[in-house]
Amino acid sequence: MELLAGLPSPRPLNWQDRLISALDAGLRTVFVPTRATRPTPAAGMEPPELAEADRRGAQALMRVNHVGEICAQALYQSQALFSRSDDARRHFEAAGQEELDHLAWTAERIQQLGGHTSHLAPLWWAGAFAWGSLAGIAGDKWSLGFVVETERQVEAHLAGHLERLPQTDTVSRAIVEQMRQEEAAHADEALARGASLLPAPIPALMRTAAKVMTTVAHRI
Ligand SMILES: [Fe+2]
Ligand SMILES: [Fe+2]
């Protein structure tokens, strides 16, 4: 401590610092394996024996979910970057941090299933970063409203995956169920922070963009 006593205190981060930090986080999201801070919800489970068709089906669904988590990183990073208040920024950063576990869990599951993550990861990240930037520029209450809508759509999407994932793939199912619960909590937290619900055409537009992403990521 005595050694640090004579050093000037670090200056607060300015916008350019935050932009560089968001781009750096983006490169790590796309190109560097993420390490989870919490154990996977499937920890301690016996790895299930899967029929070949089930294994391939689960690979594709978990690849889609991994892409969703790449997008979540880009959205929260860009929304934090453009947030007006420190309170909103801290909220986006904290939620993004929790989403990192989802990113790590889905990547690990894809590997266990012998699959590959999407080849278009940089594209998904960039597209989501653009969406999140627009939401952030619109102002905090709309940006929080964008979180509410996104997380609710993701929650419904994950509920759909729980119907499609093979019953035998208990590991993927445990991960998706935990994610579904946490996405719902993210929506509730954003609502509690004063989110404005988005006007009618925007949720439909977001659903269309998500449909394109999920359809393509299912294959590549
Ligand atoms: Fe997530
Ligand atoms: Fe979330």
Automatic annotation (TrEMBL):
It is a peripheral membrane protein. One of its GO terms (cellular component) is plasma membrane. One of its GO terms (biological process) is ubiquinone biosynthetic process. Transmembrane segments: none annotated. Its cofactor is Fe cation. Fe cation 2 binds at residues 99, 151, 183, 186. Its main location: membrane. Pathway: Cofactor biosynthesis; ubiquinone biosynthesis. Binds 2 iron ions per subunit. It comes from the Bacteria. Its EC number is 1.14.99.60. It catalyses: a 5-methoxy-2-methyl-3-(all-trans-polyprenyl)benzene-1,4-diol + AH2 + O2 = a 3-demethylubiquinol + A + H2O. The keyword Cell membrane applies. Keywords: Cell membrane, Iron, Membrane, Metal-binding, Monooxygenase, Oxidoreductase, Ubiquinone, Ubiquinone biosynthesis. PANTHER family: 5-DEMETHOXYUBIQUINONE HYDROXYLASE, MITOCHONDRIAL, COENZYME Q10 BIOSYNTHESIS PROTEIN 7. Catalyzes the hydroxylation of 2-nonaprenyl-3-methyl-6-methoxy-1,4-benzoquinol during ubiquinone biosynthesis. Belongs to the COQ7 family. This is 3-demethoxyubiquinol 3-hydroxylase. It comes from Roseateles puraquae.
